[in-house]
Amino acid sequence: MSPRSDKRGKRALFETPPIEVDDTLKDDPLVDRHDAEGQDALYSVGHREPGTAVITCSRCHVKTRTPLVETLVRILAISLWFPTRAYSRWIQCPACLQRAWCRIEWTA
């Protein structure tokens, strides 16, 4: 199912949400960031979860936390691996659904 055909947002219910790329507001001294239990807690990307891996896509630059089983299925489907590259795995990105070079962080 492509993101364009998901009119009701069902895809968001069954997938792990992507991790934010960069938050430029965190370094801005003019922005008040003291609301740790309000809006920041509501829109945070979450804590480290056991049994998950973080996949970073070189194409869309989105970090996505995925279950280990889903990560292994992506690797076993059709993938390439070059251990000397920064983005060493050629797999389907869970965020943009395109085949791209991705980095997998197993200890996340």
Protein described:
- The protein is α+β, with helices and mostly antiparallel strands.
- It is about 20% helix and about 25% strand.
- It has three helices and six strands.
- Strands 1-3-2-6-5-4 form a six-stranded antiparallel β-sheet, covered by helices on one side.
- Strand 4 (about 80) and strand 5 (about 90) form a beta hairpin.
- The longest helix has 10 residues, at about 70-75.
- The chain starts with 9 loop residues before the first helix and ends with a strand.
Write the layout of secondary structure elements.
Elements: H1 10-14, E1 18-19, H2 39-42, E2 52-57, E3 63-67, H3 68-77, E4 80-81, E5 89-92, E6 99-105
Antiparallel strand pairs: 1-3, 2-3, 2-6, 4-5, 5-6
Write down the overall mean pLDDT: 75
Intertermini distance: 27 Å
What is the total tally of β strands?
6
**Total discrete domains:** 1
Total helices: the number is 3
Shape: globular
Note the run of SSEs as H and E. Answer: HEHEEHEEE
**Strand proportion:** 15-25%
Name a few traits of the molecule.
3 helices
What's the short version?
The protein has helices at residues 10-14, 39-42, 68-77; strands at residues 18-19, 52-57, 63-67, 80-81, 89-92, 99-105.
